Resolvase HTH domain-containing protein (Daphnia magna), 131 residues
Amino acid sequence: MEDSRRTILELISHGFRVEEIAAMYNTPVRTFYRRMKDMDISVRGKYSNITLDSLEQKITDISAENNRVGEKIIRARLQGQGDTVQRSRNRQAIQNTVGPRPRPPRLTRREYSSRAALSVWHGDGLHTFIE
């Protein structure tokens, strides 16, 4: 039992989600959570206890280097610095410091000019198989 506890803690520390670990053990997720509770294992222990102010300061430093970084890159950089932060806290700090990012423009449809309606066709090459 101690070996499996140590293995689960090791997998959690390497960034595996509980759902992935449960699949490795071929166990339903709810059963796996119950077994984790019996072994006194919590996923919450892997997150940093960093304050919101210092998290915002780190995010400001990261985005000062490159203003086009997104949430995933910021989260990865924070993990590289040794701070594993929940997604909700990460998003909140990003909103407070950088603000919402503008969405990229929508794709525009091409406009074709042709002599008459239905004179431009597209052949995908699969019509040769139809008999």
The radius of gyration is 25 Å. The CA atoms of residues 79 and 85 lie 8 Å apart. The first helix runs from residue 2 to 13. Residues 52-97 form one domain.
